[in-house]
Amino acid sequence: MAANGQIKIFTLKIDGKDVSARSDQTVLQVCRENEFFIPTLCHLEGLSNIGACRLCMVEVAGQRKLLPACTTMVSEAMEVTTTNDKLAHYRKMTLELIFSERNHTCSVCVSNNHCELQFLSQKLGINHIRVPYRFPKFAVDASHPYFILDHNRCILCTRCVRVCDEIEGAHVWDVSGRGIQAKVITELNQPWGSADTCTQCGKCVNVCPVGALSEKGRSVAENTKRSGFLPYLTARRKEKI
Amino acid sequence: MKAKIATTWLDGCSGCHMSFLDIDERLLAIADRIELVYSPLVDNKVFPDYVDVTIVEGAVASVDDLAKIKKIRKHTKYLIALGDCAINANVPSMRNPIPVQEIINRAYVENAFIHDVMPKHPALPELLARVMPIHEVVPVDVFIPGCPPSNDTIFYAVAELLDGRIPDLTNKTRFGA
Ligand code: SF4
Ligand code: SF4
Ligand code: SF4
Ligand code: FES
Question: Regarding the domain delimited by B3-94+128-162, which CATH topology (the fold level of the hierarchy) does it fall under?
Answer without folding.
Answer: Rossmann fold (3.40.50)
